[in-house]
Hints:
By secondary structure, this protein is an alpha/beta fold. The chain is built from 15 helices and 14 strands. Strands 5-6-4-7-8-3-9-12-13 form a nine-stranded mixed sheet, sandwiched between helices. A three-stranded mixed sheet has the order 1-2-14. The chain has a two-stranded antiparallel ribbon with strand order 10-11. Strand 10 and strand 11 form a beta hairpin.
Amino acid sequence: MTVDTTGAGPLGRFMRLFDPGQRLGWAYRDPESLRTPFTEPEPSRTPPPTAPHNRVEAARLDHRDRRTTALWAGGGIVAASGALAYLVDARLAAVGAAAVVLAAAGLSRTARRLRSATTAMTAGHTAHEEAFQAAWQAWQRRRQYHEAQQEQWVRTASAWNGLPLGADSRRLDVFGGSPRGREGLLTVLGASTLRERPLIVLDLTQALVCRELSVVAEATGVPVDVQLLPSRLTESNIVDGLGPHEMVHILVEAMHGDHPEARRVERAVDTRILTQVCTALGPDVTLARLGAGLRVLMGEDDETGLLDRAERRRIADDLLNDRNKEQARDSVFRLMSFVHPLEGLGTARAGRGPGYLTCIALDFGAGSASTELLADLAVQSVTRRLTTFPEAPPAVVVALGEQGLQRRHLEQLSLVCERRGSQLILLHPHLRDAAEQMIGGGTVAFMRLGNHREATVAADFLGRHHSFVLHSLTDTEGRTVNTSVAQTIGTSVSNSASTSASVSTGTNWGDSRSYQGGFNPLSTGRSASSGGSHGETTGTSDSVTHGTNEAATRTTGDSDSTSRALGQQRVYEYALEPTQLQALAEFSLLVVEREPGGAVRVRSADCNPHIVLREDVETPPTATTPTTPTTATPMTATTATVTHQPALPAPAPAATPTHAHAPQSTAPRQPPQLSPQPSPTRRNPWLTAAPQPEPQRPAHDPGQGPVTPP
């Protein structure tokens, strides 16, 4: 691992991994996105009050009316009084003088009122403008202060915050990831867990993903117990403190855990044989003595000297008769083959007490058969320890390897952890077989899933949702041309003929008398006339009319049309596509939480331990995004400076028994004191001296940020 010698202790800023608060990693946020804008509106210039202007206008109109009245009425009175004084009496001129005086007095009074109203209006306008300028200046000061405060807060805000596991989360299943990514997750999660409770790590990956955590914890003074299987099998305590019945149980479960139903008879026979051998050995039952007893039962020579003569005779002669020995020979041989590689388990552990951090890891040299047996044996040992002994419940991390574990064993361990209140974290390298059947038992998290089928299973677990997407795009363009021609030619001919005749005959006559008048009454006259007339008229007319008309019409039409149409369709698609799960970064982690109502909440984090070396990291986990500080006025605001305080050392753990499985007090264990000095007794094979600085690995680029699900 990479360490930094700057700061207190050999780890420097790596000590911040042990700050209080259990965390899965760090969630990135852009401080600029948290900047709060200044929402107070700018003061606007309002028109001055109209009352002073109305008073000035009223005074001006009054002054004008009085002046007009004085000119006309006063002038008339003066002219009239002057004329009367000239014609009647000279004393009447005083009336005109009095009228002039009264008019002048009225004009003077209205003029003073006009000047007073004008002065008041000018003063009011000046005060109104000064109030606006004062309000605008105050607004500018508040805006500048707010922006300065926001700038200071953004400059000092943390870009990375710890992502909590959740107070009510008793189980976490992490699927996928590379060995380096799971190592980083185990380091970040394990270091923060050690601050609160003991931790047991079962590293079955054969990649030693617990190495970084053990080295960091050892350097900070945490008691660490690393047990490498099978290379350092003699230093392991996975079977210490187990009684004969419990040892028989875990051995049978480890040997037959893969097919419990098909091998029920074999399980019963093996349990019977092991129980009888343990009974013959008495209360002192170890794997070495059990192996020696099985060899004696098989008829082989035992040169270990672990059994006395009476025990060998009792096992060889009294345990089974000859017929039963022949029938159980295959079972005894199988038991002896399983137990023989485990005979040295825990024989060289004298003087080594339990660790606050216990790491049981399969190393690189483990073969296939011994790997599966030791893995099952380690899980069964931890399960029995949590079930039997009344110690403070530790947190358990099981980093599964390629060979995996049986679903029955994992569910049994999960049930025991839930009953005891222990926190269980399962790191599954793949999402298949037993892991696929166990998904959803607790909080679920995903790292990079390279296999497409596993990514599809994870996407199905995250669920689907409805959305509207563009379904079709239609673009149509057309042109239409219409042309029509019409021509009309016509000819007309008309003939007409007429004949007329008229005859008229007439006769007239008349008689008239006349009287002249005067002095002669006999003056009279009479006349008569007669006459006749005859007329005859005859006429004939002929007419012929020829006509021709011609008309032509031409019509031309031209039109263009363009149409575009967009079609949307409702689809039911993944909330997170499988390809996105395959493209996650090495240290990216997606934590899935089910909310009431079935909604899925996905939170992203980065579990790279080297992020803690950055200056803009806030180690205490936060469930929500913090809000920016707000102040009412610059006069009452205070600026808070947040600095990282080192974690206070907790009380040292009380005296512990000589082995991890011995009964302990039911009082809760206290976290160990995080001291920069390593513990005097070395129990970590990877840390033989104080950590030396190595070339620092580049920290995670915050510009990229963690992967965010759409």
